[in-house]
Every structure is written in C-alpha cells, then in structure tokens.
Amino acid sequence: MKMLIARLVLATPLTLLGGATHGQPPQPTEQGQSMQRMLADVNVIRAFVYGGGKREDARTAAEDLLAWSNRLAALFPPGQASDQYVDMSAERARLAPVASRREAEKLLAAVRNGKISAVGDQLVVTERNGCGACHLSTVH
Ligand code: HEC
What is the pLDDT of residue 117? Predict the structure, then answer.
C-alpha cells in the first residue's frame, strides 16, 4: 500500500504532531517511531530555546537527532521508499538523509556552543531543510 507522506506534517506546526496518532494501529512502524523520536528531540531543543529548558537536555536531544539522521538512509532505502510513499521520489530518498545529517550536525554544533538565539535560528533551518527534505514539496 502506498502511503502519502505527511507533507501536511510541516504545514501543521510540528509541535502539534505528537498527538496525531488517532485511529492508527497500536503497532507503530519502525519508521513511524523514528519520526516520533525525531519530533520529540526537536521539541526538547525548542524547549531550550523558548521554554527555559536545559542546554544539557538539548545537547542529548541534538545528539539523538543526529543519530536518527544517520539511520534515515537505512529506514527509507531509495529503491523501496519511493514505492512505499507517494511523495518520496528516488531522488528525494537519496538526498534527504544527507541534508538531514548536515542540518542535524549544524544544530548540534549550535546547541553545544552557540547563543540561544543562534540555536533558535538553526532549529528553524533544520526543520525546513532537514525535515523539509521529505516533508516539504519545495525542498529537495
Ligand atoms: C528521509 C525522509 C524524512 C525525513 C528527513 C523526515 N521525515 Fe518525517 N516522515 C517521513 C516518512 C516517509 C513518514 C511516514 C512514516 C510512516 O509512518 O511510515 C514520516 C512521518 C513523520 C511523522 C508522523 C510519524 C507517525 O507515524 O507517527 C512525524 C511526526 C515526522 N515525520 C516528523 C519529522 C521530523 C520532526 C523530521 C525532522 C527532524 C522529519 N520527520 C524528517 C520521512 C522523513
């Protein structure tokens, strides 16, 4: 069965997505779980930027986000993901993990050493160019 990837995901603020599991089967896929973890990491970093969260927690989350980014190519193999998900062209499946890793690395660097405002700026870029590499039709 082909699934439409949540291109909607970024149209809806990502913070709202944690609850978007209504009516889904109780056994989430590994791919779905990986996404839930990445979303949770983004939210921890957001809490550091806007909600007085700890830098230490944000650093752990940024490391986890990078680790998941490094697994995306295996979770969404170019030859298969484009058959399974309507929105996932082979090109996108090939390029998105690279973009995701690059943006996760920049975010981790900012979380380690940067001003909070710089972390906030990079978080926006990471969501657009990293997550957006799959979730936005305008980004490759
Ligand atoms: C390599 C492509 C790719 C990247 C990069 C990516 N996603 Fe996804 N995402 C998908 C696909 C494909 C699905 C549908 C997965 C499924 O449920 O099988 C998905 C689903 C989701 C879901 C719904 C998960 C569920 O089933 O409960 C959320 C939330 C999500 N992504 C958030 C993110 C966030 C946050 C980022 C960036 C940190 C991100 N995604 C980056 C491909 C990607």
Answer: 97
